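Chapter summary example: a protein plus iron/sulfur cluster.
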Amino acid sequence: MAESIEEMDWQEQAACRDHENVIFFGPEQGESELERQPREAHAKSICQRCPVAEPCLEFAMESNQKYGIWGGLNEKERASLKRRRARARRAS
Ligand code: SF4
């Protein structure tokens, strides 16, 4: 329960609260690469000034969010971070 309360705390401070979800998750279908890149750049610029980017990213990593920009990273970047962390754990 404590975790869900913490989760609510950070979400209340989220800079994306005042923006449409589609900026962070894209349209349900039909987005080209040319459209995706500026959309993601826009979402990441919002994340850059978000006071809760760190807990947001950790939430996405822990809950294996498959889609969208969380904590300034898209799904491929989170997967890459996950691999780097796993390698670092194995090396230590
Ligand atoms: S880091 Fe980005 S996605 Fe996460 S809460 Fe902040 S603005 Fe929203």
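Key point: Helices lie at 2-12, 21-25, 33-48, 53-62, 75-91.
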